[in-house]
Amino acid sequence: MILNDIPADNVVLCCGYTDMRRSIDGLAAMVQQVFKMDPCSRNLYLFCGRNNTRIKALFFEGDGFILLYKRLECGGRFQWPRKESEARMITPQQLRWLLEGLNIEQPKAMKNVDKLLFI
Questions:
Q1: What does the pLDDT read at residue 61?
Q2: pTM to 2 decimal places
Q3: CA-to-CA distance for 56 and 80, rounded, in angstroms?
Q4: Is 27:45 a contact under the CB 8 Å cutoff?
Q5: Which of 29, 51, 81, 104 is the most buried if burial means most Cβ atoms within 10 Å?
Q6: For residue range 56-66, what is the model confidence (pLDDT) as tens digits?
Q7: b/e per residue, 34-68, with b = 16+ CB within 10 A?
Q8: CB–CB of 61/41 below 8 Å?
């Protein structure tokens, strides 16, 4: 999966609906103006259209932007958070779930434990 190979520091879900006609400049402006983030950072920004079948990914590679596009077929839909004007960091595991059409919050998934206390 190409998106897993991008050397991003963070994966940022740009929640809400995005007009999939937007190109690199439009998505970069949205990252900066709506989400108050730097589009030239080492983050991978993900956007989803209204019908939940298409996503775009924006990444600044150092000398230019990469724009990737994925469309689900056969009735598949992305499980996308819709709170407008909100950006959210997700883990690499959550990115895999999202790209497979699953919800990023899996109730039966094991949660990471920050610290264990042994007595």
A1: 92
A2: 0.82
A3: 13
A4: yes
A5: 104
A6: 999 999 999 99
A7: ebebebeeebbbbbbbeebbbbbbbbbeeeeeeee
A8: no
